[in-house]
Amino acid sequence: MSIQPEQEDVESYLRFPNIPIKQDPKIYWRQEDKYPKLKKIAQKYLSYPMSSVASERLFSTAGLIQNDLRNRLSADNLNKLCFLNKNLQKVNFNY
Q: Where does the HAT C-terminal dimerisation domain lie (predicted)?
């Protein structure tokens, strides 16, 4: 059974020494061409949002979910409800 190139990249990367804790990981990935597929993933997930609109929208949704009638809702359940509220529409789930 052969190992896929992507899996080899991940395994090789995991064996690579860690960067210093205070170093910005984006700097590492800007110059790291050894793992081009992993570099694309890192650039996607290490990027900063261009504005605070998404977080403001999330706080607004949380405020609508946790109201006076739901004041005992746990943080974990509130988090799950916010996640479902924003992601169910992406899979065309109607509620």
A: 10-88
Residue 41 and residue 69 in contact, taking contact as beta carbons nearer than 8 Å: no
Question: Which 3 state secondary structure label does DSSP give 66?
Answer: coil
Decide if 72 contacts 46 (C-beta within 8 A): no
What tens digit of pLDDT does each residue of 22-52 get?
Answer: 888 877 777 778 888 888 887 788 777 788 8
What are the C-alpha distances in Å from 44 to residues 37, 53, 82?
11, 18, 22
**Is residue 67 a contact partner of residue 91, using CB atoms and an 8 Å limit?**
no
How many angstroms from the chain centroid is the CA of residue 1? 32
Which amino acid belongs to residue 18?
N
